[in-house]
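User: Hello! I'm new to structural biology and keep hearing that structure can be predicted from sequence alone. Could you demonstrate with Replication factor C subunit 2? Please show me the input and the output so I can see what each looks like.

Assistant: Of course. The first part below is the input, the amino acid sequence of Replication factor C subunit 2. The second part is the output, the predicted structure written as tokens.
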Amino acid sequence: MASNFFTARTTSTRQTKSQVIEPAPQPWVEKYRPKTIDDVSAQEHTVAVLQKTLTSTNLPHMLFYGPPGTGKTSTILALARQLFGPDNFRNRVLELNASDERGIAIVRDKIKNFARQTPRAQTVASDGKTYPCPPYKIIILDEADSMTQDAQGALRRIMETYARITRFCLVCNYVTRIIEPLASRCSKFRFTPLDNDSAALRISHIATEERVDVDKSVIDALISTSHGDLRRAITYLQSASRLSSSTNPPTKITSADIQEIAGVVPDAVINALARTIGVEVDDMDVDEEPRGKKGSFESIRKKVKQLMREGYSASQIISQLHDLVVFHPTLDSRKKSNSALIFAEADKALCDGADEELWVLEVALRVNKAIS
């Protein structure tokens, strides 16, 4: 019996050690989320203002708004950790995702109960550091623009009543969806899409930490496909890393891999369609139709049918073709304006459920006529 007890205890010890040694898999967007507000990329004005609140510990109600992936939630979480420390963070901060919990019942019950509680006494930080730990709590309402009108109306009274011991931070994408009485009670901070240099610096840092070999073309592809959303760019990088490491031996990540993961149409494909329509594009990798057939109905119809059979999204084709035409260096303003009207009409038709192949063909033929 003693032998069985020893064996069981040894097995349990081995399992505990293996659990400690093996780190839990974690998305890179969480792994590299800023730990302090100094780590937040490209939001200099907001960071500068919040730095002063760290020294004065006088925090107002706040409203963070801007496009997805610009660091809104990461900034308030980093600020809260710097104010309260890892131990007091648990009992001083309430984070709710308003897209899931957005009814008036949540405001009256969960939010009000937390807001009315007097903050607990400051505990000594386990990491040995000293934190300001001001005498109030913070409630973070992520995606607050998803809250109902009634819930927002109930929230404004709570913000006034318990302002001495509770501060609110509303995080949203569209500030116009926050009712004016609620927005007027908050200091507004606008988060802008990340500039290319800041995004490239952050992506390069993560790639270096994860030992992922990427060149400038890959980073440029990540930035262009993410449209200022750093979270999306990091997710694409992690997906590409897993894809490249799944082969034996591992393959090098290319910009085409990033475009494939992002669901965009490869540049070579769009350029081929543009040249068939009659837009001059400098791309030597494009398989050209004979010059005599360029811009003809048959050549355009054949190219559109080929694209749709390959399964590309009509909306994505039209969006990328729009950017190519509108930012074309040699087309004049009148041709670009006429083409833009065509793209707008097609986008509306696709949103209404029109046939994709017919509208891509329609756009191609009308743009061909507009630029000729």
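User: So the tokens describe the shape?

Assistant: Right, they're a compact way of writing down the 3D structure. Reading them back into a model, for example: Residues 84 and 133 are 5 Å apart (CA to CA).
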